[in-house]
Amino acid sequence: MSRKIVIDPVTRIEGHGKVTVHLDDDGNVEDARLHVVEFRGYEKFVQGHPFWEAPMLMQRICGICFVSHHLCGAKVLDEMIGVGTNSETGLPRAAEKIRRLGHYAQMLQSHATAYFYLAVPEMIFGMDAAPAQRNLLGLIEANPELMRRVIMLRKWGQEVIKTVFGRRMHGINAVPGGVDKNLSRAECDRLLNGEEGLPSIDEVLDYAQDGLRLFYDFHAENRSEVDRFANVPALSMALTDPDGNVDYYHGTLRVIDEAKHIVREIDYHDYLDHFSEAVEEWSYMKFPFLKELGREQGSVRVGPLARMNVTNSLPTTRAQDALERFQAYTGGASNNMTLHTNWARAIEVLHAAELIEELLRDPDLQRQDLITTPGQDAWTGEGIGVIEAPRGTLLHHYRAGPDGDITFANLIVATTHNNQVLNRTVRSVAEDYLVGRGEITESMMNAIEVGIRAFDPCLSCATHAFGQMPLIVTVHDAAGNVINERVR
Question: Residue 85: what pLDDT?
Fold first, then answer.
């Protein structure tokens, strides 16, 4: 008797999705799918609005990676008014550095949230632990000092965001052609030196290394399980600088295969020439892939794991040491081990802290030349921006009419790029835990969710809706009758 297992919704992610696992008569997995059940409307919502409102509107897509949407939209607006993307072609040097500072701060606090709040509970307590334990409160009870440090790390990152954008969430600083505020020396020194209730940069750098220390200990004790869990193939893609190193703010899209051979290097302005999107009737989220390779061979992985696969090196000392250990583990090949995404994420927390320190010590942040204003004849009415959000490569594309009102908008967010590999992960975990059994257990449900949570998917970015749903797992017989159900 064939059966279908439904996990609805997946928990400890942003947004709402569900999983279905289809079993044959012997209890083996026939198929497994991640369904994104929300509908996104932001590309339509923004149409008719003045182009300069886009970075303010688009960041409302998300309460976590709003800085990425704000800055990606600002890069689009730079192009629409005829200003180059970086200091060499028009954007003031100070403006780019201030934007980068805010971007790195979001990378730090977003990754710290995903890592410690969403992934670490299973690392500390195990996938079989009771749901009442494997959560933030359980972590505080088990290791209050670690969680105090985590909270201080996130608070510091949010303070940097507030200093740059005026608010901890949905602030405004990036404007067409630059930024509207610099950072005073006093503001920078406060973040570097700390104060009561706010750590210093030396403390932040130590806190940032907690994630690596935790992963190394966890991996040493559970190496076989961690390495085997959802080891699924995909190409890796990230923005890189001319030296082939990851650049979170600007660069060329580099795609590599499992042997780290370069498959494509793409000017992101030409993304429509290289990418197509498949659709499925069972999900609102699309499946991007490289046209020439097709959907199966041409789908990409983005985010921390992909970036650490793609980059040749990192420009900060501590993160570079961690990267060398990470890349040596696979002997120079790409790493497809899903749970190693948490290793890569911990490296990026440390890397972001080091990059922030460098910028806070940079006197360019006090410069007054913050905006380039081109002539009216520089207006292009169209722009494309790409940025490396915490979860991976994010693309915004807008067009506006001669009156400046937006007529077209397209977004490809990191979670959308990861859609195919997310589904491969769901199937891999389902096969490991369900072959020949099909029994619904808390451990089985959580294992599937652990695989999804490793990507830190933002379904609120990929699609947008509101509401609150329980977790319902239902087993149907071949006739569609409910034969077992659990509600959480």
Answer: 59
Domain membership of residue 189 as a residue range: 83-231+337-364
Q: Residue 162 in 3-state DSSP?
A: helix
Question: From residue 181, how far is each of 31, 66, 171, 194, 369 by CA, in Å?
Answer: 52, 18, 12, 22, 10
201 with 101, same domain: the answer is yes
DSSP 369: -
Listed as own residue / partner, the contacts of 68-71 with beta carbons closer than 8 Å and 24 or more positions apart are 68/103, 68/106, 68/387, 68/389, 68/390, 68/394, 69/394, 69/396, 69/461, 70/165, 70/171, 70/172, 70/174, 71/99, 71/102, 71/103, 71/174, 71/249, 71/385, 71/387
> What does pTM read for this prediction?
0.89
| Residue 466 binned pLDDT confidence (cut-offs 50, 70, 90) | very low
Average pLDDT over residues 134-146: 93
Instruction: Tell me whether residue 104 is in a domain.
Output: yes
* Whether 19 and 100 share a structural domain: no
- Asked if 105 and 355 touch (Cβ cutoff 8 Å), the reply is no
Do 23 and 124 lie in one domain? The reply is no
pLDDT per residue over 62-116, tens digit each? 767 789 999 999 999 999 999 975 444 589 999 999 999 999 999 999 999 999 9
Tell me: do 132 and 216 sit in the same domain: yes
Residue 10 and residue 134 in one domain: no
Closest by CA position to 21, among listed 423, 439, 430, 483: 430
318, part of any domain: no
Q: Are 449 and 8 in contact (CB under 8 A)?
A: no
245 within 8 A of 313, measured Cβ to Cβ: yes
Domains contained in the chain, number: 2
| Assigned domain for 346 exists | yes
Q: Residue 89 is part of a domain; what is its CATH number?
A: 1.10.645.10
Average pLDDT, the chain: 88
